[in-house]
Amino acid sequence: MLDTATVQIIKATVPALQIYANDITSHFYPLLFSQHPEVLPYFNQTNQGKGTQPKALANAVIAYGANIDELGNLSDAVSKIVQKHTALGILPEQYDAVGSCLLQAIKAVLGDAATDEVIDAWAKAYGQLANILIAAEESVYTANEQKEGGWRGEREFILVKREDESSVITSFYFQPFDNQGLPDFEAGQFLTILFDDIDGVAVRRNYSLSDAAGKDYLRISVKREPNGVVSNHLHNNIQLGDKVKLRAPSGDFTLRKNAKPLVLLTGGVGITPAISMLNTAAGSGRDIRFIHAAINSDVHAFKQHVDTLAKANSNIKPLYIYSQPQAHCQPHATGFIDASFIEAQLPADRDIELYVLGPIGFMKAALAIATSLGVPASQIHFEFFGPAESLTA
Ligand SMILES: Cc1cc2nc3c(=O)[nH]c(=O)nc-3n(C[C@H](O)[C@H](O)[C@H](O)COP(=O)(O)OP(=O)(O)OC[C@H]3O[C@@H](n4cnc5c(N)ncnc54)[C@H](O)[C@@H]3O)c2cc1C
Ligand code: HEM
To answer: Quick one: pLDDT at residue 362?
Structure first.
């Protein structure tokens, strides 16, 4: 517990930190990467370049300061950070490095306003948050290790199958090199793939699992991004029999196990965790609307799979909307999702579980539509294929 004087200083300095948040994180990352280059491989440099990760860290620190005397408000945010950290393999000993650089950055940006008292208070507050995260992360590592077929850290897998799902998305099927079985995971979770050397750089990326649990493989489905480091490496260089290193499944964008109608609303490559959810829930009898937005049928992944499942299970209704259909495309609608298109798929009581994933603009539109139609906020679930961003700003 922090003492009252520390809590008061933290609350009094949150507004200044809010104003200078971007400056502080812009100072923080270069300090961290120059003083502790060993943490570089953990960070996706694209997210640094786009500024999305610095913004996510700044928002987290400010939210923590603002809620310093009511930490219960932060449990969802803490859980998301823990899932991301454990997916990437963040270790307790790295917290001192991050804390020291964060305090140096606060001092550099706030100047004289960052008195010894202020820095001392933030050091204590950071230490408290670090301890909360370290303990929660250790519980996840232990649970992953103790699960049947589970593991801690990195594990070697072999690519046993590749399959094109569209002109831009390919599925990769991995089996453990040690033949020691696989853990159960929740539909909607993601794993982390690590490469020690792509053009001289060590990188790691998250990929959603795109099939249900209980198979003898883990499957990811990857979109080839223009100039993307890892997606192009997977598409161009990884062949059957090649070894890769994977970290255990993580994430809290998971299928709620109830009987409510399920609406899976995805755009582009955001379809991947929805396929895992669909495959998991298909035989449950639960009403499932599988709504997918794509540019056209060439880039529309898993169409045949979803159509086949829907033919065999009358509880599944697929709906495809294409923004730029070609002459041979046969979507159910054209253009972009709007309120009337979505409303037609919802029960009158709106008592559904809605899962949304796609480009940021798509998710913003989906949230606005779902909210305007009266879907309860606690039943709308989002995942981000990068650091979390605001969907209302
Ligand atoms: C939880 C989660 C689940 C995910 N699941 C999937 C999935 O199932 N399938 C999938 O395909 N992806 C998924 N992703 C995304 C994935 O992790 C990678 O981000 C994606 O594959 C791109 O990685 P890359 O190394 O190929 O591209 P990167 O090298 O990271 O580049 C991505 C794009 O950004 C551009 N770029 C690079 N630097 C900048 C900059 N400074 N400013 C602007 N643009 C820049 C690049 O040219 C490229 O087009 C998921 C991400 C998360 C967080
Ligand atoms: C109290 C301390 C910390 C806080 C509040 C914090 C907060 C965050 C937040 C909010 C995210 C973004 C989550 C998301 O939306 O995806 C994140 C991601 C991340 N954090 Fe932390 N973090 C802390 C400590 C650390 C430490 C010690 C490390 C170790 C080097 C670390 C490494 C990372 C990495 C690598 C990511 C993913 C970045 C990316 O996508 O490139 N964090 N953290």
So the answer is: 98
Atom of ligand 2 nearest to the CA of 206: 40
Higher pLDDT, 166 or 59: 166
Question: Would the pLDDT of 393 be above 80?
Answer: no
- Residue 391 within a domain: no
Kind of pairing between the strands at 288-294 and 316-322:
parallel
**Claim to verify: residue 290 and residue 203 sit in the same structural domain:** no
% pLDDT > 90, the chain:
91
pLDDT for 264: 98
CATH of the domain at 280: 3.40.50.80
- pLDDT at position 50 over 90: no
> Does one domain contain both 237 and 349?
no
Same domain membership, residue 107 and residue 47: yes
- For tokens 């937005």, name the residue: 293
Ligand 1 pocket, mutate which of 42, 45, 46 (most atoms under 8 A from CB):
46
Split into its structural domains, the chain has a count of 3
Ligand 1: atom nearest CA of 225 is 49
Give me the active site residues, please: 95, 137
Distance separating alpha carbons of residues 248 and 239, to the nearest angstrom = 22
Contact (CB, 8 A) for 204 and 192: yes
- Tens of pLDDT, residue by residue over 300-344, are 999 999 999 999 999 999 999 999 999 999 999 999 999 999 999
Q: How far apart are CA 104 and CA 27, in angstroms?
A: 9
Question: What count of other Cβ atoms lies within 10 Å of the Cβ of residue 60?
Answer: 18
Q: Is pTM beyond 0.90 here? A: yes
Which of 172, 186, 190, 207 has most ligand 1 atoms within 8 Å of CB, for mutation? 207
What confidence score (pLDDT) does residue 355 get? 98
CA 259 to chain centroid: 25
- 218: domain CATH number is 2.40.30.10
The whole-angstrom distance between residue 362's C-alpha and the CA centroid of its chain comes to: 16
| Cα within 13 Å of Cα(158), Cβ side | 10
Distance 60 CA to ligand 2 centre (A): 9
| Residue range of the domain that includes 116 | 4-146
Rounded distance from Cα 163 to ligand 2 centre (Å)? 33
Mean pLDDT to the nearest integer, 267-292: 97
Model pLDDT, residue 367 = 97
114 is a domain residue:
yes
**Do 202 and 293 belong to one domain?**
no
Same domain, 29 and 94: yes
